[in-house]
Design a protein that fits this description.
Chain lengths: 112, 113
């Protein structure tokens, strides 16, 4: 069975600082990996996805993530955050059968 | 652009009421999903459907049922609402073989009093 662990429930950071949101997964098969963002009072939007190929994936709003198969990780990074990045971020895994398993989420709070 | 529409943004219901949450997608997607979102628990899959009149239990189906009479519409039903079903409910859809991600609606915040 697949599972996703987001190690940090909350990450506070000052504006313009770099940030890393951690995600580890477990799966016995090949996986597809996703990061979603949820702004207050909105549904989930895709930030980026890894299906195959290059392990460094670039997404929207300056975010990127690196797939590390040996460490079963897919950490999300941004070199310089903005106030507008304040949101909840979810990591998700799929075995390709279209059912996504989500992590418990990380709340990113950016302070001025 | 894919649109997934949930009919209600906020709902307040009483314990014991029968509650219908409606979801409609406009992209002819085969797969539709209902998740609930709770603080600290992330998104948990309640039910999903691969086709009209087909349904599969997710991880937390107890207390819920679903209906898919038309391809574009997937309804979540709480037969007898309870306070522990107070939550944010998210509907999503995707097409078979599509490497695109799930497309989500904006959610329905249900409060059961």
């Amino acid at each position: 069975a697949q599972s996703v662990t987001q190690l940090d429930s909350q990450v506070p950071v000052f504006e313009e600082a770099p940030v890393e949101l951690r995600c580890n997964y477990s799966s016995s098969v090949s996986v597809y990996l996703f990061w979603y963002v949820q702004y207050p009072n909105q549904g989930l939007q895709l930030l980026l996805k890894y299906l195959s190929g290059s392990t460094l994936v670039k997404g929207i709003n300056g975010f990127e993530a690196e797939f590390n198969k040996s460490q079963t990780s897919f950490h999300l990074r941004k070199p310089s955050v903005h106030i507008s990045d304040t949101a909840e971020y979810f990591c998700a895994v799929s075995d390709g059968a279209d059912k996504l398993i989500f992590g418990t989420g990380t709340r990113l709070q950016v302070f001025p | 652009d894919v649109k997934v529409t949930q009919s209600s943004r906020y709902l307040v219901k009483r314990t014991g009421e029968k509650v219908f949450l409606e979801c409609v997608q406009d992209m002819d997607h085969e797969n539709m999903f209902w998740y609930r979102q709770d603080p600290g628990l992330g998104l948990r899959l309640i039910y999903f459907s691969y086709d009209v009149k087909m349904k599969e239990k997710g991880d937390i189906p107890e207390g819920y049922s679903v209906s898919r009479e038309k391809k574009e519409r997937f309804s979540l039903i709480l037969e007898s609402a309870s306070t522990n079903q107070t939550s944010m409910y998210l509907c999503a859809s995707i097409s078979f073989g599509d490497n695109s991600p799930l497309h989500f609606g904006n959610g329905t915040r249900l409060t059961v009093t």
